[in-house]
Amino acid sequence: AATVQADVPITDKDLETEESMWSLYERWRSVYSSSSSSGDLAEKVSRFEVFKKNARYIHDFNKKEGNTYKLGLNKFADLTLEEFTAKYTGAKPGTAGSSGARASIKPLEPVAGDAPPTWDWREHGAVTRVKDQGQCGSCWAFSVVGAVEGNNAIMTGNLLTLSEQQVLDCSGAGDCNGGYTYYAFDYAVSNGITLDQCYSPPPDPYFYYPKYEAAQDTCRFDPNKAPIVKIDSHSFVNPNDEEALKQAVYSYGPVSVLIEASNDFMYYQGGVFTGACGTALNHAVLLVGYGVTEDGTLYWIVKNSWSTEWGENGYVRMIRNIPAPEGICGIAMYPIYPTKSCPCPTAAASAAA
Fold first, then answer.
1. What is the Cα–Cα distance from 233 to 155, expressed in whole angstroms?
2. Largest CA distance in the chain
3. Residue 36: which pLDDT band, with cuts at 50, 70 and 90?
4. In the chain, N or C: fewer CB atoms in 10 Å?
5. Could you tell me the CA-to-CA distances from 186 to 35, 229, 251, 327 in Å, in that order?
6. What DSSP character marks residue 3?
7. Angle CA(310)–CA(244)–CA(68) in degrees, nearest 5?
8. Among the CATH numbers 1.10.260.30, 3.40.50.2300, 3.40.190.10, 1.10.287.2250, which is that of 12-78?
9. Whether the Cβ atoms of residue 87 and residue 135 lie closer than 8 Å to each other
C-alpha cells in the first residue's frame, strides 16, 4: 500500500478568521518555508493572500464525498497555478505531431509476453530514488534520465543513478524554461549519460555545489571518462493507446510520458488521481508501472521529480483506461521508451521473468 506524505492539516476552524488563517499559514511556513517569499513583509503578505485561496480550495475539495484522491497543503501552497507551472514544469511536446516523429513509432513487439494485471518496476530494481528538479523547468531531463536508468538496469542488472545536470547542461534539448524529451533521448543515444557522482562540478574552489544545481551551467561532460551509459535508440509508443502503453511499460521498462500538471495535480497528496486536468501537455514524468485498487480501479504508477514531499512519497497513482483515448491528463499522448541491445548479460524478457 502506498504511504501518503504527511502534510499540514486544515480544519473548519482554521478558515474562520484572518487570524486563524494567518496561524495556519505560519504553521505551514514552519514546515515548508515558502516557495516564493524572499522574507520581505510585503511579499509575505502577498503570499498569504494566495495561500488563503489555495487553502480554502483544498479544504472544500477534501470535504466532498466520492473523491478518489486527496489534496494537501504541500510546498506549493503559496503559489498561483501560473507561478507553479513556470517554475516546476517545463515539458514541450516538440515533434509529436510531425511526420518525422510519427515515422519513429515502431510496432510494439512484446519481449516479455503478455502484460500481467499489475507491474511495478520499483520491485524489480529498475527505479532510482525520487529526485527534486527544484525551481527549474527541467522535468524533461529527469523523465529521460529516469527512463535511461531503468532501461540500463533491466538490460545489465545494475541500477545506476545518472546525471540530470549533464543532460540539462549539455544536451541542447532545453533549459530551466523547458525542454524536449525527444531531443534529450537523441543526446543519450549519441553521447550517453554519466553517473551523477561523476559529472564534474563547476570549477570554483570556494563553494560547494551539489551534483544537481537546479540551473543550467557550462557543459563539463568528459566523453573519455567512464562509466557512461548509452542507449541504442528510442521509440514512441503508439499514441492515444493505453493498452499499448501498458505493454510497453511491462516489455521495455519505465516510459517517459508527458501530462498536463493541473491545479489539482499541483496539490495532490494521495489516492488515485482522476483529474481535473486537460491535455495541454506541460510536464514530463516517468511511468514505472501499473496496478489496481481493491475496489477494481485501474491506475498508472508515476514517478515525479518534485521530491518526496509531494504526493505519495514523490509518486502519484493516476487512473488508467479512461474513455478518452489520450488517457488521464494526456498521459498516453507522448510516450517514449529507450532501447538497448547487447552486449548485455540480461535481456528485458528474462529480467521481467
1. 14
2. 66
3. low
4. N
5. 33, 13, 21, 26
6. P
7. 35
8. 1.10.287.2250
9. yes
Stretch 317-338: mean pLDDT: 97
Q: In whole angstroms, give the CA distance from residue 158 to residue 67.
A: 40
First-residue to last-residue Cα distance in the chain: 23
Residue (of 61, 58, 68) closest to 270 by Cα position = 68
Helix, strand and coil in the chain, % to nearest 5: 35, 20, 50
Distance CA 125, CA 161 (A): 12
- Name the pTM for this structure: 0.90
The residue extents of the domains of the chain are 12-78, 87-349
Q: Could you list the active site residues?
A: 139, 283, 304
DSSP helix/strand/coil, 174 = strand
Residue 114 banded pLDDT, cuts 50, 70, 90: confident
Task: Report the DSSP pairing between strands 315-319 and 268-273.
Answer: parallel
Structural fold of domain 87-349: Cathepsin B; Chain A (3.90.70)
d(CA 315, CA 328): 15
pLDDT digit string (tens) for 189-200?
Answer: 999 999 999 998
Helix axes 181-190, 139-156, angle to 10 degrees: 40
